[in-house]
């Protein structure tokens, strides 16, 4: 029996899942609505990468080529000192190896990835309707400027109240609304929903600033006490600035609910500790129109669903943007949930039970955190910079062994013959 499905959030996971639902005759018969809080597709953000099982999934979806065409022209990472002198240089990390660069083999601007999944979901829907002509069942609808306000569980459904006051009953609600998911809080209760976000005590801000002629294709990083400052041109006419800090964590946390200009003022305090291109960062922050800041954290929650509400992507298992694995975790989740729904027809309970069982092992592995270099003193910062220098000088980065399996997870992707993969 076709289901009424609501997906909350049109970031990466929402549209990717909607696209995957169109790949089987069972799930393409469902009526799918995606709501997005933002008035338009929220295609902002800096570079994100995809690794591990994300690559075979994109290949199956026939999207690897489209993603590859959008990868950014970043050639590695330079570690600099306060005088702009390069002390170490690392090339791109291949997908099957660990490395010291921020750049992985598949690196793409977040907005490009959001658009690829969004457009593909609509293209797949159009294909279903074209193939099935008059008999096409199901639907896929995006509604922007709409959010979820309340949620009530009943035996086999969930009643949702929207920001416009409208109420509607769904057979399945998917929370794909990011690490600070409201759906999670509404479904599991405020305490469990909030406690699922495990702060790393690190705050990050991102903004674009004018590019300078001396900047090439390498990202650059400068370690200062309890913070580091990064520039990435990503092959664009502007430069992305990224600041990571453990300083003033409480003050920064308190600033997030405030208007952007006030948040920027709080971040000006962090700019003070920078001894590299300080004026450029200060001016860039002041004049930026795309400033975005958040607290780095992981989402860990025992159950990924309650009744007919399930968490997908960052809302259920954000690995922290730091790891560069947010997209990979999300896409693994989308693939398994779509596969299980296709396999079990309208037995949603079994599909959700299997989704949770299958997605937990790879996610736990991918949530393993790397060492985070945040020396709090000048001496510590000098040590980190010099370790990078000697790793580079002695070529230790080139001696790293290949990972056991691509991307470092030993887990094998389940196969779903129920899903159709069209080759162009
Ligand atoms: C603006 C933005 C910039 C980002 N920049 C980076 C970056 O530079 N580097 C990086 O590694 N990761 C970044 N991320 C996170 C990254 O996109 C995710 O880690 C990952 O791709 C998983 O995607 P997701 O769909 O689960 O979550 P997200 O990509 O966060 O998408 C969640 C979506 O849900 C929407 N939403 C939230 N609440 C509601 C609500 N109540 N009702 C309806 N819609 C709602 C949001 O507007 C967003 O479109 C960013 C996320 C956002 C939203």
UniProtKB/TrEMBL annotation:
Pfam families (alphabetical): FAD_binding_3
Signal sequence, start to end: none
GO molecular function, a single term: oxidoreductase activity
Recorded superkingdom: Eukaryota
Keywords in alphabetical order: FAD, Flavoprotein, Oxidoreductase
FAD-binding domain ranges (all copies): 4-356
The protein's name in its UniProt record: FAD/NAD(P)-binding domain-containing protein
The organism of origin for this protein: Periconia macrospinosa
């Amino acid at each position: 029996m076709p289901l009424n499905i609501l997906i909350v959030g049109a970031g990466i996971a929402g549209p990717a899942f909607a696209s995957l639902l169109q790949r089987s005759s069972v799930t393409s018969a469902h009526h799918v609505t995606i709501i997005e809080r933002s008035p338009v597709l929220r295609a902002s953000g800096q570079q994100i990468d995809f690794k591990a099982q994300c690559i075979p999934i994109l290949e199956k979806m026939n999207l690897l080529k489209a993603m590859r065409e959008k990868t950014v022209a970043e050639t590695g990472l330079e570690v600099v000192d306060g005088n702009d002198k390069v002390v170490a240089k690392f090339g791109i990390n291949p997908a099957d190896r660990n490395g010291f660069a921020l750049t992985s083999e598949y690196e793409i601007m977040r907005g490009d990835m959001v658009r690829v999944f969004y457009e593909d979901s609509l293209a797949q829907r159009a294909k279903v309707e074209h193939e099935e002509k008059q008999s096409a069942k199901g639907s896929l609808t995006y509604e922007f400027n709409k959010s979820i306000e309340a949620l009530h569980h009943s035996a086999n459904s969930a009643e949702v109240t929207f920001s416009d006051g409208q109420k509607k009953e769904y057979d399945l609600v998917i929370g794909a609304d990011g690490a600070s998911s409201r759906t999670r809080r509404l479904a599991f209760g405020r305490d469990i929903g909030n406690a699922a976000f495990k702060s790393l005590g690190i705050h990050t801000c991102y903004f674009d600033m004018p590019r300078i002629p001396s900047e090439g294709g390498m990202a650059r990083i400068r370690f200062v006490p309890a913070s580091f400052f990064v520039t990435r041109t990503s092959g664009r006419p502007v430069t992305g600035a990224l600041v990571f800090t453990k300083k003033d964590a409480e003050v920064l946390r308190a600033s997030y609910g405030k208007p952007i200009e006030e948040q920027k003022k709080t971040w000006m305090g962090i700019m003070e500790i920078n001894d590299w291109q300080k004026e450029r960062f200060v001016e860039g922050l002041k004049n930026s129109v795309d400033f975005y800041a958040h607290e780095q954290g992981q989402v860990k929650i025992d159950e990924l669903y309650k009744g007919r509400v399930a968490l997908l992507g960052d809302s259920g298992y954000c690995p922290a943007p730091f790891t560069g694995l947010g997209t990979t975790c999300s896409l693994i989740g989308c693939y398994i949930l779509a596969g299980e729904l296709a396999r079990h027809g309208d037995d949603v309970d079994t599909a959700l039970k299997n989704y949770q069982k299958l997605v937990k092992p790879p996610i736990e592995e991918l949530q393993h955190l790397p060492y985070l270099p945040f020396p709090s003193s000048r001496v510590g910062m000098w040590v980190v910079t010099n370790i990078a220098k000697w790793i580079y000088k002695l070529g230790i980065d080139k001696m790293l062994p290949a990972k056991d399996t691509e991307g470092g997870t030993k887990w094998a992707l389940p196969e779903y013959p129920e899903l159709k993969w069209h080759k162009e």
